[in-house]
Each structure stands twice: as structure tokens, then as C-alpha cells.
Amino acid sequence: MENPNNRIVAVGRLDGGLELSHEVMNEPFYTGTLLVKRLSGATDRLPVTIPGKLMGMLPEDRERQIMVTGQVRSYNKVVDGSGRLMVTLFAQTISESTDNDTLNKVSLMGALCKPPIYRSTPFGREICDMMLAVNRAFGKSDYIPCIAWGRNAQYASRFAVGDRVRLTGRLQSREYQKLMDNGEYLCRNAYEVSCFTLEPADAENNLESIGAQQTGRIYERPERIHLN
């Protein structure tokens, strides 16, 4: 189902086969990993969920590049006895693609459901973590981790819980180590939307932002920031 508040298009290759995940109303859903290149040459390993009705759209040669359009979705899963928020690329269309093997574009609009967390890395790079609640059909919502950098991070830190935000970015994967109670480190994967642009989802503010760009005026709280 089309949702203008939650869109993603990504081009990549499936890493291995697909596994049956679950069924809803007698329709099977399969999960796998989509390998999507970055301009830097690194590769994001994105979880992908494919409805059974789309399986026929996959090329026979699973090594071929495909374009997947759909939504960024989340769900809760019990892992090692505790609940974890899982993020996936939920496919709505699939086609073969030979162009732009680094395409990975996300557009979201939702409300912040946690206070933004602003911090700096050991190397002095500014980061701000956000959790965006994006409405879905039938009264459901997806809770999507997002991260902003540099000036975007400064700007994102000014938002409050409940503020509606519109952003664009890319869905990325990241490995990290978690310190366990026994003193050992466990390697895990995190999935988040890295923001390219960020603005309030308020029509009046957006018009003010456009005017500021045209006139060169600078506001104390800029209404739109683009990542340099």
C-alpha cells in the first residue's frame, strides 16, 4: 500500500537465498539481505522482507541487480531473552536494474517519539540520534531510528518529542559491539536512516524556509538544513 510518509528505493543484489519468515492471511513473507553499495565503495547489508506475491518478479539469476521500492518498517523481536527493535526494507515492487548501483533513497515524515540525543565522536564529529514514529495503515506505526551529522545534528537536537519532521536520507547498516554483563563484547548490527535533509513537517515553516533560501536570510533556527 502506497504511503507518502514512508518511501524507499534501493538498488542492490540479494546475498544468498531467502527464508520463509511468516504468513499473514495465507500469504507467505520471505526475508533476506540486500547488498547496496555506497559511493565510498562500502556496502550496506540491509534486511529485506518480500511478500510471496512478488517472488515471481525476482530474476532467475539471483546475482543480478534489482531495484526494490517500498517502505522502511520496524517490528519487535525477542533476541537473547530481551526485546529488540528490528528494521527492514519492506518490498512493494521489484524489477531488474542496470543503472545507478548506489541508489538508496529514503523519504520519511513522522513525529519524534523520544528526545534527540546529541553527542560528539572521539574525533569531534557531531551526531544526533532520533527515533521517528511514522504512521502506517490500519492504525499501526513504524519506529525508525535516524541519525544526523554535522550541522544537521545541531539542528536535529533542537526538536522536541511530538515535533513532526520530514527528512530524506539513506538506509544504512552499521556494526557495533555491546558490552555484556559477563564482561564480553557481542558484535551486533544496527540499521538506521542517515539523514541528508531535515525540516519541520509544517507547511508554514517550509514556505518560510524556501523564502530564506531565496533571499539569503539567516534565521536563528533555520527551517531546512542540507548536509554539505
Provide the descriptors you would attach to this structure in a database record:
disordered C terminus; single chain; 9% helix; mainly beta; OB fold (Dihydrolipoamide Acetyltransferase, E2P); 13 strands
| Rg, alpha carbons | 19 Å
What is the end-to-end distance?
34 Å
CATH superfamily of the largest domain: Nucleic acid-binding proteins
3D shape: globular
Number of strands: 13
Strand content: over 45%
Offer a concise description of the structure.
By secondary structure, the chain is mainly β. Helices cover 9% and strands 57% of the residues. The chain has two domains: 6-100, Beta Barrel (OB fold (Dihydrolipoamide Acetyltransferase, E2P)), CATH 2.40.50; 107-226, Nucleic acid-binding proteins (OB fold (Dihydrolipoamide Acetyltransferase, E2P), Beta Barrel).
Topology:
Blueprint: E1 6-14, E2 19-24, E3 27-37, E4 43-51, E5 66-79, E6 82-96, E7 104-112, E8 117-120, E9 126-135, E10 141-149, H1 150-156, E11 164-179, E12 185-200, H2 203-215, E13 225-226
Parallel strand pairs: 4-6, 10-12
Antiparallel strand pairs: 1-3, 1-5, 1-7, 2-3, 3-4, 5-6, 7-9, 7-11, 8-9, 9-10, 11-12, 12-13
What does this 3D model show about the protein?
This protein is mainly beta. The protein folds into two domains: 6-100, Nucleic acid-binding proteins (OB fold (Dihydrolipoamide Acetyltransferase, E2P)); 107-226, Beta Barrel (OB fold (Dihydrolipoamide Acetyltransferase, E2P)). Helices cover 9% and strands 57% of the residues. It has two helices and 13 strands. It has helices at residues 150-156, 203-215, and strands at residues 6-14, 19-24, 27-37, 43-51, 66-79, 82-96, 104-112, 117-120, 126-135, 141-149, 164-179, 185-200, 225-226. Strands 1, 2, 3, 4, 5, 6, 7, 8, 9, 10, 11, 12 and 13 form a 13-stranded mixed sheet that branches. The radius of gyration is 19 Å and the shape is globular. Mean pLDDT is 86; it is low at 203-228.
